[in-house]
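hey m, so remember when u said the tokens were messed up on ur end? i reran from scratch. heres the input so u can diff it against urs
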Amino acid sequence: MIETHELIARHKKVLALISERKFETALGLINECIEISRKTALNYFLKGRIYDEMLDYPASIKAYEKCIARDPNNQKAKFYLGLTYLALEKFEPGCRYYTFRHEPEILRKFSALKPWSAKVKPGKVLLWSEQGIGDEVMFLRFLPFLETHSHCFTLQCDQRLIPILELNYPWLNFTPRGSALNLTQFDYHLPIGDLLGLFHKKFREVSHQFLAVRSNQKVKSLVENYKGLSLIGLSWLSMNEEYGQRRSWPVEALLEGLDPHNIAVVALQYLAPKSEIDKIRARGFQVIDDIDCHQDIDAVFSIMSHCEKIITIDNSIAHFAGALGLETDIWLPNLPNWRWGLEKTKTYWYPSVTLKRFD
């Protein structure tokens, strides 16, 4: 029997091989680990991660199921199994396992409140935010289905979104994400991502554009300086700590096929390096980079609404553009986030978006 520390060393090697994208070698090594110890759940979890990277989702599902069979309380395996099903657009099992995305300490904060469902008696409901601002916008598409319920809903969300959401959802109350919450004010709670499980069958009932923008005089005056040119919005960097490097793409690649004689570029990139903006100008484009793309989200939405097209990677701009119903190209890495599916050029989240893949 192999010593535990030796198995741990092999697992570390598997993780290193995955990060190096040496998937076949990693798969061979994890199969050796399985031959040594078929009862070890982590062997099958790592095998599932390898198959995810190889885009062999049926195989990763089998691996995660074997992991869970050996460790029924393995929350991480259940969560990744859910993501795999969702990537395949199998919403019923996907949403069931997607509920395991929360760490126990997060859920304990809301333990005094009952989970909300359409069947509970009327009361005050806290919809609490999770993940990033792009995810908040993505799940907003399901809010209209709550308006018909006789409950008082309060949405916790990014402070920067509140002016836009007050315009679009006047029946909602809002509280800024990160502010102190008095949970005794509420009877029920619901993480906003759980709206997917409740309403995924109603995707087609939502308008292509489910957010409207406010009039912004600053933006209106700004775009008037570029009359005669089409405005194309660009975003090319991801600030995601875990996946940012994989999702980002050179700005030069997004400029391919664009004519600087007819187009002005709207820089929608948060924290865009000056050197990157200089690259755009060096190709002959006029660049609008007067908007604070981090703090002034109201202006970001407004100037995007003036764009003929948005070209972006998988970041918050992709979700903003889709919510506004704008013609948009989203460039995705070989292993895309679950919400974009596999190999398709269209997405059920945003009908105005076209999905493109990195080589």
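this time it looks ok to me. The chain has 16 helices and eleven strands. if urs says something different then somethings off w ur setup not the seq
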